[in-house]
Amino acid sequence: MSSPLNVLWKKEEQSNLGYIDIFAVVGHEVNLAEHDKAVEQSGPNGKNNVNAAEHQAKGKQLFEDGDYIAAIRELNNSLALYTADSPELGSVYAERSKCFLQLDLPQKALIDIELAKKSSYTHELTAREDKCKYLLEDEEFKAKQFTGHEPTLSFNEHETFAGVAGCLEFRKSDDFGYHVVTTRDLKIGQTVLVEPSFAITPALSSASRYSRCGGCYKELENFVPSKISSFCVYCNGNCIKNSLHEEMSMSTLKETTELVEPILQKIVSAFPDIDVLVKTVESLQKGEDVTDLTSTVQKQACSLFRLINKHEISTDQQFKLRPAADTFVTVMKKPHFGRIFNTEERQRFLKHLILHLHNVTEYAIDLYELQQEDIDEPIRGHTFVHYATAIYPFGGYIKHSCVPNVIWFSVDDRLIAKVIRPIEKGEQILRSYHPGTHSFQLDNDLEEKHVEIRYKFKCNCCRCLDDEPSSPPTKLHVDQDPLWVEVAAVIDMTVKDFWALSSQAIEQYEKKAIELVAKYNSVYPNHDVLFMRDNLMLIWILLAQTQKSR
Question: CA 20 to 30 Å from 327, out of 91, 178, 257, 428?
Answer without folding.
Answer: 178
